[in-house]
């Protein structure tokens, strides 16, 4: 896409600090560096979000995660963990609409990054869980 910042980075029109690249993906340092080593993994094929992936593209992109994560972890003995985040849609905090995966090294619980998972289990009973389970299963494609 002509106006996509990640497509421009992939084509080399915008410089980046590339850490990995092959025929299918490009991984480069996120300019914000939420924590040192914060990296983005993007498919070279323009897809807006996970809902536009097929199995082949998913395999090509997601299979690179362990390799890149291990390389990031190896740069610093202080890395204690890593958040791997893929936001899909504006309501899910996606700000660039070219699919991308954040690899965010975690040095401590005091890093400049947080996630909050609410606990709504008190409003779910067996019937509600089963209804959601059945709805998802009914929509799975072979």
UniProtKB/TrEMBL annotation:
One GO MF term: catalytic activity
Listed Pfam families: HIT
Gene3D superfamilies per the UniProt record, alphabetical: HIT-like
Domain HIT residue range list: 5-115
Motif position, Histidine triad motif: 98-102
GO annotation, biological process: nucleotide metabolic process
Xref: InterPro entries: HINT, Histidine_triad_CS, Histidine_triad_HIT, HIT-like, HIT-like_sf
UniProt-listed CDD domains: HINT_subgroup
Active site residues per record: 100 (tele-amp-histidine intermediate)
Protein name listed in UniProt: HIT family protein
Species: Periweissella cryptocerci
